[in-house]
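Troubleshooting: if your tokenizer reports a length mismatch, compare your output against this known-good record of 156 residues.
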Amino acid sequence: MDSAAMGELVMAGFQKLGFIQYAGIEGVEFAPGRNVVSIAPKPEHLNHNGDLHAAVLFGLAETAAMGAAVSGIVDLMGETFIVARDGRIEYLARAKGDSGPFLATSEIQPDALAGIRAQIADRVDIELIVPVTITDGTGKAVATSAFTAVLRPRRA
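Known-good structure output:
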């Protein structure tokens, strides 16, 4: 199965989650080590200043990060428990609602992906820091974030 088909499967799974449905988060690109998701703001996503609400930006970033965390191990997900342990975000500029759509891009280096696959094969617990950058429709960075993805062997 190619990366595009895997990406469609992963995003189809994400689309079943209530928050992602509410937020209208869409998959843009999915490849081993890379996940890009987007949101086109609706009025219910905006704060009192007309900016994308901070919680929505955080959710967009977390979705990108966890997608990147699974991007190189889709074939191993049946034997791997994956969850976000923590996350942080730094807001760099206003995320004006009318300057969307917003893109969240997360990337993991190929050597890190190879190490993750080896650790999964060895049934080793993994904690991986996954970075994300969020840009507005002009390409301007509005936030950066990082999440700790925890990958553990599924218990029998």
